[in-house]
């Protein structure tokens, strides 16, 4: 046999040996993963046996369509007391909580946000106040709290009213007596304009206004893509996800959102180069949100990095307009479907404001019935349907049941607000649940979360909701469209699968 033939056989033999070794290592790795999966699953079944739940597939978990999650969770709420595990896929579970006593225990602790779930938000909003944990979160929270001092919020009343009136003027041009309007997009534009002017010192700019619509669409896309990715076992790896069509779509939406916030930051930095504007800011007793970030000094004396600055701007740009827009949209729908309560609110506002030429800070506490209706709508339709925590240490609940460290807990605000053991006849719109002398559990109503990590902008949001409701009821009668009943779905905020369509009837002055 020639030397060349011998060499060929040696090469083929070495390749064959390498492939055999690779196959063996692959099988061993697969066996290791299978054993690891089995042991983890057995541990989870053991620690969760105190909490019954519907039957689930060993790998596919509880197979629930994303758009049907809220309705399915309500069925579980009635059947399984206080809490139950939801198997997502494999060994991935969310421990659903919808009992106020359980909520109180969890929210009173300092458990961090779960990085395995909230990390999917990071490419978009970075590590700002929503995603930070521990001392860094506390430092940023303390730094930003002055931006929501009542002396800061008071002057915003005029800005909010002007933005609402612009929206209402647009509605007058779009409607006739029998027309129907999808209101949520208009409300999103209004709340975005408000937050831009109030928190980010935005002055009217045609360029930014043109970008509002693309920014809102990008947020809507991300609000779908992120929860969808969370529920897909094959999209957990960042590299694999980036190669998918959903990953490319998500990256494009993030770029649009970042372009918008980067422009806001650049514009304000350019304004502060002007000595007159800089002196005006220095004379302020309280700075607004963006100026606090630009002038902030950390404990070591350094300014916020560009990365941290954009993370806080991206976070508040989203939370400051999208959650409020969701709240106002659903409040309008609730009032449209309950005309007797709508009329009582209108009469209260008319007695207080007359023709609505001006609405002031002092007016906000003089509309008790309207406030009751707003709160009842927020109970039925909480803007943030759920929040998550990862247990940093074991927990024991008031009924004696317990969970170990490491479990991901989902606090279902939506299920809590619809829990018949907490709220009798929960689907009935009854504003008197929030009458001044009514009593309820401290953690039964959580539209702005609770505990130390509650929503920093809750007073801002409530003010804007009251202004929007008051001025709208003076101008229009709201009526539902029986052919397009909204279907609530869980995204990052509560949305309607088919939009929120209302008939708007102009009120005679």
From TrEMBL:
**GO BP of this protein:** lipid metabolic process
Q: Where's it mainly located?
A: endoplasmic reticulum
User: Which residues are recorded as binding heme?
Assistant: 455
Q: State the CDD domains in the record.
A: CYP4B-like (cd20678)
Gene Ontology cellular component list: endoplasmic reticulum membrane
State the compartments where it is located.
Answer: Endoplasmic reticulum membrane; Microsome membrane
One Pfam family it belongs to:
p450
Give any GO molecular function from the UniProt entry: iron ion binding
Record-annotated membrane-spanning stretches: 12-32, 117-138
**Keywords from the UniProt entry:** Endoplasmic reticulum, Heme, Iron, Membrane, Metal-binding, Microsome, Monooxygenase, Oxidoreductase, Transmembrane, Transmembrane helix
Cofactor section:
heme
Q: Which family does it belong to?
A: Belongs to the cytochrome P450 family.
Its recorded name reads Uncharacterized protein
State the organism of origin: Sciurus vulgaris (Eurasian red squirrel)
């Amino acid at each position: 046999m020639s030397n060349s033939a011998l060499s060929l056989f040696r090469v083929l033999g070495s390749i064959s040996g390498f492939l055999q070794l690779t196959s063996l290592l692959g099988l061993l790795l697969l066996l290791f993963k299978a054993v690891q999966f089995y042991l983890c699953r057995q541990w989870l079944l053991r620690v969760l046996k105190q909490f019954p739940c519907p039957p689930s597939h060993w790998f596919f978990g509880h197979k629930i369509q994303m758009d049907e999650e809220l309705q399915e969770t309500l069925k579980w709420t009635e059947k399984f007391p206080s809490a139950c595990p939801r198997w997502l896929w494999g060994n991935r579970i969310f421990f659903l909580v919808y009992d106020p006593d359980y909520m109180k225990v969890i929210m009173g602790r300092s458990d961090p946000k779960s990085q395995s779930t909230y990390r999917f938000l990071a490419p978009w909003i970075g590590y700002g106040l929503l995603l930070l944990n521990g001392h860094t979160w506390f430092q940023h929270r303390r730094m930003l709290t002055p931006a929501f001092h009542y002396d800061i919020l008071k002057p915003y009343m005029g800005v909010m009213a002007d933005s609402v009136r612009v929206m209402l003027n647009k509605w007058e041009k779009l409607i006739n007596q029998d027309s129907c309007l999808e209101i949520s997009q208009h409300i999103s534009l209004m709340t975005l304009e408000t937050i831009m002017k109030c928190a980010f010192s935005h002055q009217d700019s045609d360029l930014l206004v043109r970008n509002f619509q693309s920014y809102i669409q990008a947020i809507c896309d991300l609000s779908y893509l992120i929860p969808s990715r969370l529920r897909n076992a094959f999209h957990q790896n960042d590299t694999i996800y980036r190669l998918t069509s959903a990953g490319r779509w998500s990256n494009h939406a993030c770029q649009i959102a970042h372009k918008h916030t980067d422009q806001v930051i650049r514009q304000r930095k350019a304004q502060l180069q002007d000595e007159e504007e800089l002196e005006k800011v220095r004379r302020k007793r309280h700075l607004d949100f963006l100026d606090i970030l630009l002038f902030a000094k950390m404990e070591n004396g350094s300014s916020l990095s560009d990365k941290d600055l954009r993370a806080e701007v991206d976070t508040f740009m989203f939370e400051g307009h999208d959650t409020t827009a969701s709240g106002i949209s659903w409040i309008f729908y609730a009032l449209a479907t309950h005309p007797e309560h709508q009329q009582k609110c209108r009469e209260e506002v008319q007695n207080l404001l007359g023709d609505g030429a001006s609405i002031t800070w002092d007016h906000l506490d003089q509309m008790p019935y309207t406030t009751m209706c707003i709160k009842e709508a927020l109970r039925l339709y909480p803007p943030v349907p759920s929040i998550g925590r990862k247990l940093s240490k074991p927990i024991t609940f008031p009924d004696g049941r317990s969970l170990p460290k490491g479990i991901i807990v989902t606090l279902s605000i939506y299920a809590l607000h619809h829990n018949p053991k907490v709220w009798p006849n929960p689907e009935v719109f009854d504003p008197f649940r929030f009458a001044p002398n009514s009593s309820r559990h401290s953690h039964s109503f959580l539209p702005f979360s609770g505990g130390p990590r509650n929503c920093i902008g809750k007073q801002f949001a409530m003010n804007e909701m009251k202004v929007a409701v008051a001025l709208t009821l003076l101008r229009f009668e709201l009526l539902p469209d029986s052919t397009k009943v909204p279907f609530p779905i869980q995204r990052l905020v509560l949305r309607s699968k088919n939009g929120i369509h209302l008939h708007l009837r102009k009120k005679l002055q």
